[in-house]
User: Fold this.
Amino acid sequence: MAKKWKQKIQRWLTKQLDLPEDVMMDFPRITMVGQLHVYIENHKGLLTFSDKEVRVLLSQGQLLVKGEGFVIKTIWPEELILEGKIEQVLYINE
Amino acid sequence: MKNLWFKRLLGSVTVKLIGISGERIINELIRQRLVIWNVKRMSKNEIIFQMFIKDIRSLRQAIRTHRVKVRFIKRAGFPSWLKRFRRNIGIFIGVFIALIIIIILSNMIWKVEIEGASPDLEYKMVKQLKEMGVKIGGFQFLVDDPEGIQRKLTAMNEEVTWIGVELNGTSYHFQVVEKEQPDEVKKTSPRHLVAKKEAIIVDYFVEKGEPVITINDFVKPGQLLVSGLIGREDAKQKVSAKGEILGKTWYTTEVEVDLTTEFELLTGKENKRTTIDFGNISIPIWGFSSAKYKHKQVEENKHELQFLKWKLPISITNKTIKEVEVHEKTYSTKEAKKLAQEIARKDLQKSFSEEAKIIDEKILHEKVENGKLKLLISYDVIENIAKEAPIIEEERED
Assistant:
């Protein structure tokens, strides 16, 4: 319950103070360049990785990217660049 | 880290992870702040990625707790290149040394040929060339260029009319033309002596033959001086007339002298430079002083390096920059006149044989025009005017 209350307060504060959400709320920021690249900031780790599917852990839930010929161009503790032919980007909430 | 060149410089390695928990290991590696890139899944339990060579120890530590195998597939970048290079350094050094030896040998002198010289002259020339450094085993870039050698050799050997110097690859070829000695045969053949030019006979000395002139005679060119036919009128004998006929001859010369002249004097300061030139780029290897002279004379000696028979675009240039001072001198008319006379006399002396003597000189005409002094000088000269002429048969019948 405490976690939910914390989130609610955060959301209210961000709205009132007009702050960027990704900074305040620890949200992922996902940038795509056509179907070529996905640039994921603020991830929490790699879950599964194959050339057709990549599953990345987020602060809440998971991100699933589907496509073909995936290569992780670079990977840092909070960012990763995925290259290949991207077809779908899905959020998975438990 | 984003830079490709940075990766190349540090050296990278391609790693293959074999095992089922590849993702977890990647997570652990990035948590340890290792840089990895180009992560690819090859099959169900194989992941390939690249990383820096320096991080391999951390990778080994990270996989200790997991059930995976690690294979290193390919090394890339500067360190591994260096390693490979070190392994093969023998070949590189060998090739390098071989190239240098070929270049050195291509720029040596392997043959010195002298053609057309008499044996003692050839011996002398070989000796002189040796002193100049032109000998078998010498270096071409340490000796003068062919023109310089030619000049020096010609100056050193009086008896030589002309020396041709040719550099053909690694061999020097000298073509010598010796001054011709007067022929013995000519001496003994019957002949007259005739006048070479207009003159008044001053003195004569006849060794052989019959003089037909007396002192103070005026002779014209071609006139008979000493007859080669001696003896009685009806039984004349042919001899080779020999003798010296001194005659007074006249020359007029015109000289021009500038009243103001500029001349350059070397101050003795000089600057020697040696550079290696690659095409248009020249790299100094000797002499870096950058003294700048206001007026200078530059002597350049360029030696192109050769590889076997081909010229390389590399050359060694010796440059001597000499400082000169430019002086201007103004002559008074009197001085100029003296100078002009000197010049005229020297010129004249050059044109005739050494025995000739100038006995008198007269200035016929003198004029200053456009800053120039013009002189017309007449000279009285005593010289040998005798010239050999063959005896023509008809003359005998006369």
Notes: The CA atoms of residues 22 and 28 of chain A lie 6 Å apart. The interface with chain B takes residues 45-51, 70-77 of chain A (CB under 8 Å).
